[in-house]
Amino acid sequence: MIGTTYLRSKMLPAPYPAQAADLLRQYVANRLEFYNAGIDDVRLQAANDQAGKLQGQLWAVVTAAIVGYNSGLSNRRHLLAALTLIVLIAVIIWVLIDLDRPRRSLILISQQNMIDLQQALNRDVP
Description:
By secondary structure, this protein is an all-alpha fold. It has one domain (2-77, 111-123). Helix content is 75%, strand content 0%. α1 (2-9) packs antiparallel against α2 (16-36), α2 runs antiparallel to α3 and α2 packs antiparallel against α5. The mean pLDDT is 79.
């Protein structure tokens, strides 16, 4: 999911791709830190706090791009398109929150994919 988001972020208008890619690299490193923190409450809390900040920054980048794109397409608002976007964003947030809790979520995944993604994102640094 994060890898797909990374690839799709490259389609955003400048300067958003570079900002989103950097935030996603930091987010992957943060999620690995959260997982590696084990039962250390201080490290877990620090990782969670940092994740919240990164999610807020990424959200700010994405909403600026989406609003600009949608506004540029036409001079009027489309209720169905707006509702669809809201539902999609809510589902994506739910999935991200679930994946954000690798030890106690509905979706269980190995951390090897996250490690591989981190290596791939770091190789793609301009």
